[in-house]
Each structure stands twice: as C-alpha cells, then as structure tokens.
Amino acid sequence: MLNSSVRHLTAQACLQDVFGYSSFRGEQQDIVEHVVAGGDALVLMPTGGGKSLCYQLPALLRKGVGVVVSPLIALMQDQVDALKQLGVKAAFLNSSLNAEAFSEVTAALLRGELQVLYVAPERLLMPNFLTLLEQIEDSIGIALFAIDEAHCVSQWGHDFRPEYRKLTVLHEHFPRIPRIALTATADAPTRAEIIERLALEKARQFISSFDRPNIKYRVLAKANARQQLEAFIESEHPNDAGIIYCLSRRKVEETAEWLKAKGWDALPYHAGLDADIRNTHQKRFLREEGVIMVATVAFGMGIDKPNVRFVAHLDLPKSMEGYYQETGRAGRDGLPANAWMTYGLGDVVNMKQMLENSDAPAERQHVERQKLDALLGFCESTACRHQTILRYFGEQHPGDCGQCDNCLTPTDTWDGTQAAQMALSCVYRTGQRFGVVHLIDVLLGKPNPKVTQFNHHELSTFGIGKGLSQTQWSSVFRQLVAGGYLETDMDAFGGLRLTEAARPVLRSEVMIWLRQDLEAPKRVSKVERSARVKEAYAGVADDPLWQALKAKRTELAKEQGVPPYLIFHDSTLLEILNHRPGSLTEMSKISGIGQAKLTRYGDAFLEVLEG
After folding, report:
1. CATH of 413-515, one of 1.10.150.170, 2.60.40.1570, 1.10.3720.10, 1.10.10.10
2. Where is the HRDC domain (predicted)?
3. Which of 69, 182, 345, 376 is a good FRET partner for 136, with 20 to 30 A between their CA atoms?
C-alpha cells in the first residue's frame, strides 16, 4: 500500500518520488506542511497553480484515506486517472457508477486499500455515507477532507451550489480531521462567505497571486465576430486545442458547424445535448490533439487539460470571476496561451435582459449587475489587463505586462479628466452610497422621484454632465471602477465609493485618459502567422523529434484509454526534447516524471530519442 511506503518520507521526498517534481511552487510547501500537521486551510490559487497537490500530498503523508469533495463527475474521473498513473490508489463515488462498481469501491475503502477518495457533495451528505465515514475514521483513519471548488458555497460566487452549504457537517461530525478548502476564483465577499459557511474561522489562509503571466489577454470590439475569430485561430492557433464560449446553445451549435465547414475539428457542448454526446465530446477533447470545444459555460469547470492553448469568448461572460476562471483553462502547463474576446453593445443588452428576467431575488440581481459592470469596465479600460484583473481580486500589479493588447498596442484615448472629476464629485456629493444609474440621472439633470426624494436636484453636480450621453457616462463609470478610482460596496447594495486614487484626480494633480472605440484586428499574413506559431512552441512545432514524442505519447494513451496529457504534459515533452536524456537516471531529472511514470514509460521514450 502506497501510504505506508511514503509516510516516513518528507513532503519534499514524496513530491519527487511520486509526482516527479524537484521543488514546490509558491506556497505549496507551506500549505502541505500545515495540513500534514493537522491544520485547517483556505487556499486561493489560480488555475494551473497546483491546487490539487496541496491536498493529494498530505493525503499520502497522513494516516488514513484523503476524502475529496468535488462538484463534477468529469473532474473526479480525470483526477483519479491522473493519480493512478502515478501509482496512487485512488477512486471515486458518484452517480456514474453502477451498483456493482459502487460496492467494489466501498469494499476497497473498508479494507484500507485507498489513499484518495473523490466523492460528490450529494453523496457525502447522505446519512448512510456519513455513517460509513465514521466507521472508516474509527478503523482506518481519515487523513483529511478537501473541499474543492469551494466558491460553490457562496451565493455571491459565480457557480453557487446549494448542497455545498451543508458541508459544515464535516466540522460537526469530524472535528479532529483537518479540512482544506480550495478555489481558483473568489473575491473578498466570496472568501468571507466560504469561511463563514464552512466554519473555517480558525483556518490559516493561503492566498496566492492571481496573476497568470503566460496568458495574453485581448479584447476587441465586435465587428464581424466570425471573421475576427477565424483570423485569430488561423494566425495563432491553426492546430491547437482551444475552447470557444458562447452565450446560447443555438450559437454553440451554429459556431461548431461553421468551424467544421472551415476545416477545424470542432465539437459543440451544452446542457441541452444528450448526456452520451456530451461525454463523448468531452472525452475527445481531453484525449485527442487539436480539438476545439465550442461551449456554453456548462463546460469547463475542473477540466484538467493542460495544453489548451486558447480560450475565446464570442459573447460576454457574466462576471470577472467567470471570465477569470474560464480564461484560466488556457495554458495550465505554463506555456504561452491566449485569452481572446469580442464584445459589443448587443452583448451588454442581452446580459442585462437575462438578469432582469431571472427569478433571482432583487438583491442578487443587483450584485450580478455590479459584477457585470466591473467586467465591462475591464473590456473598456485602457490600463494593463493583468493589472485590472488583479485589482479586482484585491491584488496589486505594476502594469506594463507585455502580455495584453493594451500594453502591446495601446488603443486610442481621449482626455477624460474633466468627465472623471464630474463623476467622482457626483459620487462624493450624493454620499458615496448610490449606484451608476442614479448617479448618471443626477449628472444628466433628470428630476425623477428618486433624485428629488434625496434632494439631489439641489446639488452642484445636478445637470453638469449633459455634454455626454447616458451610454458614454456608463462607460466613464465602468472605466473609473476598472482603473481603481471607484470601488463597489457590495455590502451597501453595490453603491459606488471613492478610493484614495480618486483624490489626486479631484485635485487636478493627474490626468485621466479613457478608451475610445476598440478596433477590429488586422488580418495577419501567412508568413507572420507561421512565425507566431513557431514562437509559441519555442521553435519545436515542426521538429520531427517533437512530432515523434507526441506520437508515442498518443500511442501509449490510446493503449490505456486515457488522455495523452496524463502520460506527460507538453511541458514535460518539451523538456525531454530540449535535454535529450540518454538514460533512465537522466530522464528521472525531468520535471513531471516520478518513479511510477519513469518505470512505466521511460524506456519507450528513450527509444524514440535513440531512433
């Protein structure tokens, strides 16, 4: 049994022997050691940052089985397959199993043969399953409880799951077992609710940087969206795996068919498709090279495919959290990737109509509108995209990233200093507690009932903004929020308030430049297209040895019925290509090759290198 063989090892030794990595990243080591020592933890780490290692290692190093609560069946299957490749005894329990398979996993659990068990929250909350866990705790031991995608507990999060609210049962039934809650996206209100709902007030918080420096962000004004998308894929990702997000099921299917007609291997995915079709498409996307998935946001959470080279949005997402998580599915292997989006006024209208027509309570709708406005501000901002995203999550970034459209090709701007002063002054004089709609009414001099109720028609800012339209003022406010001059007070129903950065603007000590219209992309020549593709893969895309290594990986994956990246990530293949190991000892030094994979695949890849 693997647990007994690794428990005496240090976390560092287990990392090398089992996972094949010579060093931890970021705060991974602190998190692992804290949980191994029995501490509770809240972990915020960006997609691709190595969250799963933070609970998988402690599960191996502590006594008993590690129980992981996960919201998606596909994610469980993927994680279990990956652990089995490493020689770890792992399994899952969810509705996809028939009675016989369920009994087999349960029996293995009772015999103490599992190191990691994934379980759906609905299954965990069943009284008979809690009884089973109590039995396991008394006999074999429970190493830890990991609550993955912990933002699902928050009603303000972008993917609220009611059953997650009941997971406090873990603390009540198993107070001595350490719990680790993990998520890639959670703003301050969501983090606070995770702590409250899961009773993690005493947990140590590990908040990693949200920055994904390998992702290049681009936002374009929607002209002819299909032509824009075609130019983007042709120029930069003609043979790559990618995800394209659309708002409606109909648009998903039409876009997939259009891409197929253009020669790309594109598949649709949305909740309206038959479950078998969805599963088939998802497996193809995970296991084949160069497949493009066209999907609604129903697809993607927990998809552990490391070599997704681009994520494109043909429609506006619902929030910054949603946008960050969706784009975060690109470049999980750390190699260059693109986050590309077109948006237009029609997207804004559609999203707001969806909010107004939803059955959500008024308070919920109000918060969702504020989140949408923050995303619109991001789209329209002239500031560094990385800087704007990190500011939303409460993190600082110096800007000038060299990895976004605003830094690489600055857009046309106009001197918005006076407009910004009007807007900021209006926020201040109305008490820093009103939303954008009311503030614009004051600036445009509209004496409606709400304006007169608060005597705002008597303010000096009443009517001073008639030189701009309502649409233009909306853009000004969004850009001021995105630029960090205003912030949304979620606890005060989304009212706007000034930040410290607003003071020098009001004093005329700094100038504010606001975005003009966004421009459509220029079509790229075939020569430039080829150069960009080769640059993205460090000059190896056409290398015969690179192709041979990928072919061997695909062959081994097909033999086992698993996705190629579970054999080796692209980043591991690149390191093999660049270092050309001549022996198993040399290959063991390649990042991502632990003992199990070295034994299983080492000779096969050495033969490729020798051939």
Report:
1. 1.10.10.10
2. 539-611
3. 182
